[in-house]
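call fold(seq) -> tokens
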Amino acid sequence: MGTGNQEAAKPAATEVLLVTSGDLRLSANQECWPAQRDMEEKLTAAFARKGYSLVRAHPYNEKEKHGFISSQRMGMDVFMNIHPQARLVFATAAWQYSHHVLPGLRSHQGPILTVANWSGQWPGLVGLLNLNGSLVKAGKPFSSIWSKDFTDAYFLNALDEWLRDGRITHDLSHVHALDRGKLPAASAQLGAQLASALRRRKAIMGIFDEGCMGMYNAIIDDELLNPAGVFKERLSQSALVARMRTVSGAEARGVYEWLVTKGVKFDFGKDPATELTLDQVLDQCKMYIAAVRIACDFGCDLIGIQYQQGLKDMAPASDLAEGMLNNADRPPVFAEGSSKELYPGGPLPHFNEVDECAGVDALVTNRCWKALGLDPSTTLHDVRWGEHYKGHGGNGSGEIDDFVWLLQISGAAPPNHFIGGYAGAACERQPAMYFPLGGGSLKGVGKPGEIVWSRVFVEGGALHCDIGRGTVVELPAAETERRWRGTTIQWPIVHAILHGVSQNQFMARHRANHINVAYAPSAEIADKALVTKAAMLAELGVQVHLCGVTQ
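ret:
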């Protein structure tokens, strides 16, 4: 073993070292460990069949009952005992905090392979994509692969390539640089006008504590953000809690009753430790009102609440408030002691988990969709999982024979994106593993229709955006239920087909765990919205990449 003053021994030629990162929350690490252990066993067997030993670089913790790296300090200490030129695999079957391993990976000199199991359970795919996006932002070369059981030809061929060459080559032929000269003149002009207006009247992103859950890829440096006309107002989640205390019980109940009148179904129980209670929901309604009032005080055009560390120990989940904020039709909020409504007539865009890249995307979408007379409700989702589906669609919607992604977020989706709107929404207690003080999600099934999907990201010291088209389909109720039970049943779900982008192409290219989604009423209008948004982003200095879309 190495020390701070002595370099670690180099592994044997047939040895590959494995590291994995987990959560800061012990409950999550313990709950997710069996899935991680099972995945590591399959992955170890796959390496053994190639003649290699996959060796854990850090042991299972008998006291804590898991084998994850559970803090940045622990990760640094683990990497101190890894030879800098060792072949290294990062493997995950669960959500993980990338900053636990990013310091070690950034300084590592040997080949790096990131791996996840193809499962929606905890989910490893979300953790993988976050780390990949963070490594891209850091400018750190790596390879990545994914598999259901680590026996399929795609995985095995990729593993052979990595063991031989130290890299994996994926098909990225679906990605095309935007040619602004080929944009329709009207869309190009509108996009340029909207960009000019944003630069003239600059926008403020309210940041309730920066850097959620180690998502390094979700932070945009001011030097990249400001030239696009967007600036940060750095706020504190403690201020949000303090402002919640100034909201009256009557005001909170007014928001709750507004939701009830709209048809939202609340799944109440009696035990606050595991069930949803009215008090939890009323606190969430206070958070909604407090967030709007703070946003107004600072002149924010959009806001992002970190929620996780810190606020999770002080208040119920923020997701119910976030879903309302992102919706065009939402409960009115008035200034304290006044009849003046704040941000009337539309969303106050919210970027979940204070993902600033998603925030920039939501701001641009909001401006473009409003200019086109479209519903500006928008959200981000986790790229949770996906599977090929062949069969009847839901409610007689015709045959489907395509790869259908399962997009899911912790309840921050707007009801205008649901089948039935608010009346199709349910509010269920957030899982205690992640949300100790409870609170309700805003749960629904994504309505069928045409979407524009996108992701803003940082690469090579510049802002980029991948953008493409998709269709949300309705699956039979039994298939939706099956998919829900294989992921997180309390959260909203979207069944999406991404046009012209295969499963493996998407995974190989996507620079984040999150994907932004906005609807349009027809394919033709969605296409027009996409090019308008692409034009605005390009005018703002963002490098735009069309994915599965040709000009």
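The chain is about 35% helix and 20% strand.
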